[in-house]
Prior knowledge:
This protein is α+β, with helices and mostly antiparallel strands. It is built from ten helices and twelve strands. The strands form two sheets. Strands 1, 2, 3, 4, 5, 6, 8 and 12 form an eight-stranded mixed β-sheet that branches. The protein has a four-stranded antiparallel β-sheet with strand order 9-10-7-11, sandwiched between helices. The longest helix has 16 residues, at 102-117.
Amino acid sequence: MVTVRVPAKVNVQLGVGGVRPDGYHDLANVFFAVALGDQVTATPGEGVTLSCTGPDAAAVPLDDSNLAARAARLLAAHHGLADPGVHLHIDKAIPVAGGMAGGSADGAAALLACDALWGLDTPFETLLALAAELGSDVPFALLGGVALGRGRGELLEPLPVTGIFHWVFAVADGGLSTPAVYRECDRLREEAGLGSSAADIPDPDADPALLAALAAGDPVALAAALTNDLQAAAVSLRPSLAATLRAGTEAGALAALVSGSGPTCAFLAKDADAATTLAAALRTSGTCRTAHPTHGPVPGAQVVSAPRP
Ligand code: ATP
């Protein structure tokens, strides 16, 4: 039996370019791995089977569309294993369809867990390449820490960070579809007369002030530099998020932003105590389902000695 712990991500910068001819958007995406995470346990089995526990378990598909199952099959195919056998159990803490790349995290965890269970010893660079085939957010879940993602987000450059930053994540009821949020972003740009193609919207670039704040370990400077080009689209599709963001700001957050494509909202706190107080205030605000204090950056997917009880 092999258990892998894997982090969720928040995008501390999500710069979205115009739509490319292939339908994707160019991104300047600064990923930040947080301790809020899933655990995936691989045990020997017949074929590839799945189970899932956690508050959002009912929303997780247990068929071949699950990224953990796809990861197991992809790794087996890469090594020419005709008849892979594994049962994958997902202990899910990352909100589903919440903009924190939970499915991608499980894909990364399954790659690592199956690699260990099957004794394949796949080089890390190969695991990263397989991860990129599974989806643009999967390589970062293997890498962890903080990294700049270019292209669709899959070309990763690790970034220097000092110290630990404290966060609170406010979980909404129900998810948002990432493709729908990108479409809404394009629609809002068209409506504003900006155009939505790659020819209309300048290529996004990493913000030097944000990179300096991360390198200096300065939460106040990071708070001032947080940006998410998908935020307006997520709030347009889910107007109640405006109240969640406001509740966190009024309760003392250094900054509030939608996490990725939402609807989870992320709040930066000045320290661990402030994060605990902020999470309690958000839980009683009536503007979210629950709120979790956490911290980061943390490493990417890692084998742990035993699953959490
Ligand atoms: P991202 O931020 O990468 O766009 P997300 O965090 O918004 O993603 P996920 O939790 O990854 O969203 O789920 C998106 C959809 O992917 C779900 O609605 C579900 O149908 C599907 N899915 C596939 N595998 C998983 C998985 N292991 N866990 C959760 N959802 C999964």
